Structures
1.
Amino acid sequence: MIGPAPTPALARLRAQIAGPHAVPEVRVLRHRGTCGDAVDASARSITVDVPVVDAACDGACWAAPAATVVRPGHRHRFARLDRGVAGALAACVRGECDEPQAGSGEHGLTARLGRNDGTLADVLAQGGYAAYALAATLPPARIIEVLRATGLSGRGGAHFPVATKWGLVAAHEAALAAPKILVVNAEEGEPGVFKDRHLLEGDPHRLIEGILIACRAAGVREVVVYINGQARHARTAFERALADARDAGIVDGSALGGESVAIEVRSGAGGYVCGEESVILNSIEGERPVPRYKPPFATDFGLSGRPTLINNVETLCAVTTIFDTPPPPTKLLPLSGDVPRPGLYEVPVDGAMTWAGVLAMAGASPARVQALLLGGPSGRFVLPEEFDRPLEMRALGAGGTVVLGASADIARITRDLAAYNARESCGECTPCREGTQRLVQLLDDPLANRDRIAALIEVMTEASLCALGGMAGRPVTSALASFPQAFEMPEGSAR
């Protein structure tokens, strides 16, 4: 995969930043971030004669505590530093090492995760801001044309065409009374999903680049980045990167061209419903965090009544690949559960990759997997007979995937998901507020209440104000259809 060639402005910026901030040719990257710090990676002693610098997790959460040795033309990750690999790591620094690791993430959105030290110099050396430097030389309409040609869809779950959404906002005149604005959805409050958090921690400059491309294309000059309040590492990393990009003249347009953009960071409340785009708008305005009625849609009447473009982190990061040849049709899959190598995987969605292939990447045998829970509280169960079918982008939703082994209690998991949705309901609409509670009660005897459950879920699906209520019954429907035996009560037991 080949990215855009550096523009003269980008070449000058690279030289300017690299002068006082040269990146060492040989170094050790110690993987921290949420994954590394969860196992106290900072306390793992690495004694070598080259710089040891902190980096984020590269997506291999299973490897923590981990570190990567970087030499010219060579990169090798050492997993589980607590298992006596210090000698091998030191030898690798001296050049006594096996073949370089190919690994995943050589290209695409994860290309720089865990492979940069967070400095602008390192990111620029690895291709950062090349896409924006090119976009800054193009008319806004041309950027949207390129975006439409790639077929890029939103990565928040609905997979709405990005070019269409940007075009709707771009069509509004930039009236001073209601200037357009971009809201970045970095709330990501659903269980089992951690892709946006990894991108923010490990490559925040990619998000800034995607933001600037979006602003250029849609005629936006103001941005609010709404980050989950519990994602402290993510916010810290993003604010540090934003300060560096401002100091370098990237955000105000003086270094790479384009227009000056004002970017503000807000912390979200961390609730599941706060990931819904209209809830985010209410939260930013200081209103009660509940969904809005539609229409009007945010592209016409959004934040404070202004035309508003709303994209999530993965979507905007994917925008930075639209000038690559060819652009990668990939999806980020946070993989957890009963699997040897949990973590963040970037997988091709090109008609060839299957769930069996994903499980193989993670070291799992499909024969030992009872099912996959795809989409968490709003998801469905993927059965083994589906493992050999090609992955389809639209069917992946936000991508959160939990591997359920042979001993997993499907009935208990289903009840837990229903109870979670009931707790997380904002209470704004009756179908969700009352329906989620009633659904939990009916699951006390799901087979006897099957008709009632089906009727209730139909009402919740059709009448709920937002997707939390609208999709709360999805895992229940999926479980009852695929695992009816899991809900059979032992003979003689009390109902």
2.
Amino acid sequence: MRALKPEDITQSVIQSFADTPDPRLREIMVSLVRHLHAFAQEVKLTEAEWFAGIDFLTRCGHITDDKRQEFILLSDTLGLSMLTVALNQNKPAGCTEATVFGPFHVDGAPQVERGGDVAQGARGTPCLVRGRVLGLKGEPIAGALLDVWQSDEEGLYDVQRPDLGHAQARAVVQADEHGRFDFRSIVAVPYAIPHDGPVGQMLKATARHPWRPAHLHFMVQAPGYETLITHVFRADSAYLDSDAVFGVRPSLVCDWRQQDDGSYLLEFDFVLNPQAA
């Protein structure tokens, strides 16, 4: 290939994708190149800065394993995860809103019977969680599965405790024939996302904090309905207005009411969107 002037390079790369068989892949790659090159030209990216960027991404890869996903953290803290959710979750009014997935979900969580203990030894103030899973017309969704996970009172998930031999504060609960569910867990607390790696260094360099407001994760699934990935946030939590991953939606902020015995009660109904025919 002949030597190209800077202004010719972008178009040359775009043309290299002309024969891409998948039209959607071609569209994505062309747009990616166009915007990436425009970014480099706008900031007049130096070679040293480019090498630093490559090193940053390499370190993100090195620290990622089956218990830690640094690239999801990076996507979350740059707002890309939440932007993708917002672009793809344009649901009818009345449906429960979605938010970011986060890096701590684990497939194959143990199933807990209704009323059972999700905490499984995780330290924290006891909390009863109950509600219903409904359709848009208020119809109960029998047998819906709720995948639930959260941190303990120290702000750590079970996968962040390498010596722990079993799941804690993580389970799958099934709604009954009336769409009702309930389980025992612990009160959610604010916590810092992992910031001992490249993403944490980025946050520190840009004078940002790593904290998330207190929340409980849910993934709700039922045949004939779109899967919902969301959180329920504590209304009295710090960081609701400065979530490190931009995941707070006002409709997901809820009162966790303290009871006479010092425990808490969270009541929340999930409304699922029917799958398109």
3.
Amino acid sequence: MRVHLSTAAAGFLLLAGIGAAAAQDVIIAPEQETVIKEYVKKQPLASVKIPGVELNIGSPLPDTVELHEVPNVKYRYVVVDNRTVLVDPGTRKIVKIIE
């Protein structure tokens, strides 16, 4: 019985660790955020509306939303509801909302 409890406990801890890692915010260095903000000001985009999508960290954007490149930055951006949103191009998930 002990072996089963130990295995279950280990599995639970593993899953808890994965959940905690997935929930962590992406850290963007202040210098890089400044570069992004300046680039976005120089390259303004029209704001889009995406019905049914909440602007939260981790929310995925539909494939129909065009993502725009920031030179030398791995993330892409789009302006949604007049808010600049950084998106991971691989997962299309929001990683940061720039105020």
